[in-house]
Amino acid sequence: MSKNYFIRYAGVALLGTCLLGSCTTTKKYNALMAQKVRLEREKADAQSALSKSKKEGTDLARQVADLTEYRAQLAADTALLGSTLRKTQGLYADLSTTYDKLIKNHDRLMANSALESSKLSKDLARREDELKKLNDALTKNRSQLDQLSTDLKAREERLNELERILAEKDKAVNALRTKVSNALLGFNSKDLSVDVRNGKVYVSLSEQLLFKSGSTKVDVKGQDALRKLATALKDQQDVNVLVEGHTDDVPVARGTAGMQDNWDLSVLRATEITRILTTAGLAGTKITPSGRADNVPLDAAKTADARQKNRRTEIILTPKLDELFQILEAN
Question: What is the pLDDT of residue 317?
Answer without folding.
Answer: 94
